[in-house]
Amino acid sequence: MQIHQETNLAAITIRRYQKGCVEIVHPITKRDEEGKPIINQQQLTRSAVIMGASLIEAWPVDSIEALEAKHLERVLSLEPEVILVGTGDKLSFPSPHCAEAILKQGVGVEYMDIGAACRTYNILTAEGRHVAVALILGNL
Predict the structure, then answer these.
(1) Would you say residue 18 lies in a domain?
(2) Which runs of E-coded beta strand occur in 40-105?
(3) Is 6 a domain residue?
(4) For the domain that residue 62 is a member of, what is the CATH number?
(5) What is the DSSP annotation of 26-49?
(6) Are 97 and 73 a contacting pair, CB within 8 Å?
(7) Distance separating alpha carbons of residues 137 and 126, to the nearest angstrom
C-alpha cells in the first residue's frame, strides 16, 4: 500500500509497506544533469529505526517478545519526543519494563501495528515533530 508521496525533503519518509518489507525514501541530496532530484529509495526487510534523516538498520529486535529496555536505549539516543513502535501485522505489547524505561526519560511511547506506525510517523514528521519509529519486521 502506498501511503506517502515524496514531499518532505528534510527527513526519511515511508513510501509504502507490505508483508515483510517497508520502502523508505531518503532525503534528496543529489540531482541529475537536468537538475531533477534523484530519489534514493531503499527497502527494509529487517527491523530498523527511523528518525528524521537518521536510519538505524538491522535493529536487533525480531519480535515484540524479544524487545528489551536495552534495545530502546539506542532509540532514545536519537532524542525523540515520542517513539512509535510498529509491532508487526498485529498490535502487540512488550513487557511493562520496556515502556517504563522510556517514560522515566520523559519520552512518549506508542505501540501500533506496522501500518499505523508508518502512517503516524509520516504525519508527525511532516509536522516537524521529533518522532522515531522502531519497526519490528521479523514477525510480519
Answers:
(1) no
(2) 40-44, 48-51, 54-56, 82-86
(3) no
(4) 3.40.1230.10
(5) EPP--B-TTSPBPPEEEEE-S-EE
(6) no
(7) 23
Render pLDDT for 92-138 as a digit per residue (tens, 0 to 9): 999 888 878 788 888 989 999 999 999 999 999 999 999 999 999 97
Of residues 83 and 74, more confidently modeled? 83
66 domain-assigned: yes
For 80, the domain range is 46-135
pTM: 0.84
Read off φ and ψ for residue 128, nearest 5 degrees.
85, 15
C-alpha cell at 49: 529505526
The H-or-E segment that residue 68 falls in is: none
In a domain, 20, yes or no: no
Cβ-count burial 15-51 (b if 16+ within 10 Å, e if not): bbbeeeebbbbbeeeeeeeeeeeeeeeeebebbbbbb
Tally of domains in the chain: 1
